Amino acid sequence: MEEISEVISVTHLSFGYSSTPVLKNLSLVVKRGENIGIVGANGTGKTTLLKILLGLLKPWEGQITILGKKMLSNQDRVFAKKHTSYVPQERIIGKMPISVYDAVLLGRYAVGFKGIKKPTQKDRELVDEALEVVGLKDLYRSDVSTLSGGQLQRMAIARGLVRESPIMFLDEPIAHLDKFGKEEIPLLLEKIHSKRKLSMITITHENINMNFDRVFNLQAGYLKEI
Amino acid sequence: MNIATYFTYPIFQRALIACILAGGVISLVGIVIVVLHLTTIRFALMHTALLGSAAAIVLSLPPVWGALFAIAVTAWLMGPLSDKLKVDTGVSGALFMTGSLALAFFFFYQAGIPAMEAFDVFSGNILSLTKADVISLSVVSVTILILVICFYRELQLVLYNEDLALTLGIQSKLVRNIMLLSCGMAIGVVMRLVGALLVDAIILLPALGALQLGSSLATVLVITSLFGLISTVLGLLIALKLNWPLGVTITLTGVVVLLLITFYRKLREHIRRK
Question: What pLDDT score does A1 carry?
């Protein structure tokens, strides 16, 4: 893919639910390799902004460009999903037994395998490498339900890494973690950022001990650099 | 009569084929029902069968056709309707269940249909299966098998975390609706085998057992299929040997298998802790 300096460009973005506006005339540019933090209290629209950037919600107004491609059609949004990685707050939701290895391998969906196309050797090598980076190599066979909060979050980061995308979105990476987790996860993310030169956009409602290049505050629908 | 002799008769051959398909393949939809908490929905689907059956009687069609059609339509509508109304599928399931029951009774009253005739769709008998029943069972089984094989990873992702699946580019809602339709069709055909009240023996019990032992979706699928086969085929053989009622024996075999699995899991955990 062509090297583009501005990996994300958002101009005059507005969005709301029903007739209630949540995001108002929001603009943001993220450069390649930048580490951006977006802070704000719960319910200010941080996750909504992330969902729009991920192509899961259509904005009311404004324009979004991801890696030089304007997000206009559903196909463009598929492009956005394929070329970005998303690290959610990992939670165990269902009763589905799944190993750490398989849960990370799922990150290769659509970029490595899909439908009847099976995971390749490359997919498996990327999983091994990502597990090594996040320090979960020894636990690759464990069921995800046996992991601690911090380990689950590291697993989610590994799943984001295997997508090999230049942009990584992180949704509340330290929420619900203990003191140790709140210290180790930011260190791991900084290490990954400096090694892989990823553009990282982290949203958080609490203080996170990370060296962001820029930090924005999302309040009352407006985004301001602080 | 010797058990082998039974299987020289077409009705027993059809029963054996039905047991193999239902236990080995149809049971796989139980994994979806258990993991995605769709138990209310399966109940709703069964009740819409009554409405379909009543409507079919009014139209002078076979009640089973009406029941299957109603289940398919409900299963297909339930997902999108829940999305539109922004309610949980359990809520829309309750809506369908009560609404279809009320409508069915309205039909009985207005058209003077004997209610028991419509209620016949709830009673199944594996020995009364027709060739058409076996064909419909085979079609549903093959469809489920193809879906599981071709969309294994999509299924794994949606069962693991629907929101995550969405962010990775899977049309989670479509996958969920296809799953609901498959569950509906599975319930519809299995009702003909053991009756509505015993559907869970084939649909739920094997999956409940497998989820206790499996370590991945692949192993859960294999174990579900295996437990389903043991419950249905062994149940059929025991019933024939001891001259017991078929549906009940298949269900009791499933219950015993599930109890044994639960006991084994507990024992294994106990030994590991020691």
Answer: 53
Query: Is B157 part of the contact surface with chain A (CB cutoff 8 Å)?
Result: yes
Would B46 be classed as within a structural domain?
A: yes
Cα–Cα distance between A5 and B110 in angstroms, integer?
72
Contacts with A68 (C-beta within 8 Å, 6 or more apart), sequence order: A2, A4, A6
Whether residue B209 is contained in a domain is answered as yes
Which 8-state DSSP code applies to residue A117?
B
User: Do the Cβ atoms of B170 and A109 come within 8 Å?
Assistant: yes
The ipTM of this complex is: 0.85
| Ordered domains of chain A (ranges, CATH) | 1-83+199-226 (3.40.50.300)
In a domain, B42, yes or no: yes
Question: Among A95, A143, A152, A172, which would you mutate to test the B interface (most chain B Cβ atoms within 10 Å of its Cβ)?
Answer: A95
Nearest to A48 by CA among A38, A40, A56, A37: A56
C-alpha distance from residue B195 to each of B125, B144, B164, B191, B248 (Å):
7, 21, 38, 4, 10
- Give yes or no for a contact between A138 and A132, defined as CB atoms under 8 angstroms apart: no
Give the bridge partners for A199, in sequence order.
A167
**Which tens digits make up the pLDDT trace of A117-148?**
889 999 999 999 999 999 999 999 999 999 98
- Tokens linked to B255: 């219950």
Residue B204: both structure tokens together: 């739920």
User: Cα distance from A2 to chain B (closest Cα, Å)?
Assistant: 23
CATH of the domain at B220: 1.10.3470.10
Give pLDDT tens digits for B165-223: 888 888 888 888 888 888 888 888 888 777 776 788 889 999 999 999 999 999 999 99
Split into its structural domains, chain B has a count of: 1
Asked if A18 reaches chain B (Cβ–Cβ under 8 Å), the answer is no
Chain A residue numbers touching B166 (CB-CB < 8 A): 56
Q: Give residue A201's pLDDT.
A: 95
Residue B92: inside a domain: yes
* Type of residue numbered A75: Q
- Domain limits for position B95: 3-266
Report whether B74 contacts B97 (CB < 8 A).
Answer: no
Q: At what angle do helices B217-229 and B205-213 cross, to 10 degrees?
A: 140
Q: Is A103 on the interface with B (CB under 8 A)?
A: yes
- Regions of chain A short of the pLDDT cut 50: none
Taking the Cβ of residue B273 and every Cβ of chain A, the question of whether any pair is shorter than 8 Å is answered with no
In contact, B216 and B43? CB cutoff 8 Å:
no
Whether residue A95 and residue B151 make contact (CB cut-off 8 A), yes or no, is: no
Q: CA separation (Å) from A210 to A172, A184, A214, B85, B274?
A: 13, 11, 11, 41, 43
B211 CB neighbours in chain A (<8 A) are 95, 97
To the nearest whole Å, the CA of A207 is away from the closest chain B CA by: 25
